[in-house]
Specification:
376 residues; alpha+beta; 6-stranded mixed sheet; 20 strands; binds magnesium ion
Length: 376
């Protein structure tokens, strides 16, 4: 079993500004990331991803808690222990192409080794190897401005691997690249990890990127960890409406439970044929939200066992599937089917929702707080 390589215990960071007062950017984070793992921080802008990464790197002090890297404490707030970034043995790549414009590629990549006073001959051979691994060999004398965004980000990667770090911190490293290149570079990062064996912490707000690259990921929202698991488990068993909505496509219906039956919120004329879970029965006013994936709803011309009679409001042709918006009371449910399932707008149909997830109703205050954090 692999060792824990990055451990956070009760890590908290508060910022106080004149205009906003005090914001808890990171609230009691507890994390254990294993050696060789590719672990993503995923969440909307303002949820605390960069702040957490900066605390791990040592650029940011903690308000509370402690951080351990490779079995050694590097930040302990209560003991005022703080190891500076250059002694943490980390590689880092950021969203902005943070390369030095006045240095050629060789000098950019050699820089961390020169700081460490590595011998000239060793610098030569290690830079050469790093450039080879990032497909930049032959470009030693070129200046960053002569290169594309993708190549500039490769310089940053080469500079990050040249010191042979144990942990690689990547903060939205692909966000400024076009989608095709993003996919290629994602693959290259994984390949570098395979060769060098470092642990990756990958920060992104892009769920498909996180799903593709991660062994496990942490979903956070408004400074709090919401759920940590494998991409597959997060998709199949989201613990909240927020995670359900954030990963993959979702469709929701606000419902109300009355006399042991489930109705669309503002329409008691027809019940949805659903089994009510224990937790939903305990809802104080009977209001809940059911959530499902648009491709997990059965759309049919026949009633079947549990069919709910309704009609098609809208049909949208997507490249690889057809999307229908179907009326459920005064709400619209999104259903996606293969192209061969054909209904016309206005046509009568039956829907069956197999096993939806149940969540408490949407929290309007949370929505406002999330927006506030993104603006700061
Ligand atoms: P993310 O990387 O997930 O987008 P951040 O970690 O950058 O989020 O920010 C989390 C919260 O902390 C936001 O509300 C942000 O405005 C606030 N914040 C981050 N850095 C500072 C700072 N230096 N001073 C004040 N507030 C900050
Ligand atoms: Mg950020």
């Amino acid at each position: 079993m692999a060792e824990n390589q990055v451990v956070l215990r009760h890590v908290t960071k508060r910022f106080t500004t004149r205009t906003m007062g005090t914001v808890t950017a990171v609230d009691d984070f507890n994390l254990e990331i294993k050696e060789g793992e590719c672990f993503s921080f995923l969440g909307p802008s303002g949820c605390g991803k960069t702040t957490t990464l900066r605390m791990i790197a040592g650029f940011e002090d903690l308000s509370e808690g402690e951080i351990e890297l490779c079995g050694k404490p590097v930040s302990i707030k209560s003991k005022n222990l703080y190891v500076p970034p250059e002694e943490r043995n980390l590689g880092m790549v950021f969203q902005a192409f943070a390369v030095w414009p006045h240095m050629n590629i060789f000098d950019n990549v050699a820089f961390p080794l020169k700081i460490k006073k590595v011998a000239r001959a060793e610098i030569e051979s290690r830079v050469k190897a790093a450039l080879k691994h990032t497909s930049l060999d032959g470009l030693e004398k070129v200046f960053p401005s002569e290169l594309s965004g993708g190549q500039q980000q490769r310089i940053a990667l080469a500079r990050a691997i040249v010191t042979n770090p144990k942990v690689m911190l990547l903060d939205e490293p692909l966000s400024n690249l076009d989608p095709k290149l993003r996919e290629t570079m994602r693959f290259e990062i994984k390949e570098l990890q395979r060769q060098f064996g470092f642990t990756i912490i990958f920060v992104t707000h892009d769920q498909s990127e996180a799903m593709a690259i991660s062994d496990r990921m942490m979903v956070c929202d408004m400074g709090k960890i919401v759920q940590i698991d494998t991409p597959e488990n997060l998709y199949n068993y989201p613990n909240s409406r927020f995670v359900h909505n954030f990963l993959g496509e979702s469709t929701f219906i606000n419902v109300i439970i009355k006399d042991g039956k489930v109705f669309p919120e503002n329409d008691l004329s027809q019940a949805l044929n659903l089994e009510i879970p224990e937790a939903a029965l305990n809802s104080p006013d009977g209001r809940m939200v059911i959530a499902t994936r648009p491709n997990a709803i059965n759309l049919s011309k026949e009633r079947g066992e549990r069919g709910f009679l309704t009609h098609i409001e809208k049909r949208i042709f997507l490249t690889d599937k057809t999307e229908y918006l179907v009326a459920v009371g005064d709400q619209l449910l999104k259903i996606q089917t293969p192209h061969r399932v054909v209904f016309a707008p206005g046509e009568e149909c039956f829907i069956e929702i197999a096993a939806p997830a149940w969540y408490p109703p949407e929290d309007k205050e949370a929505e406002a707080e999330r927006a506030r954090r993104q603006r700061i």
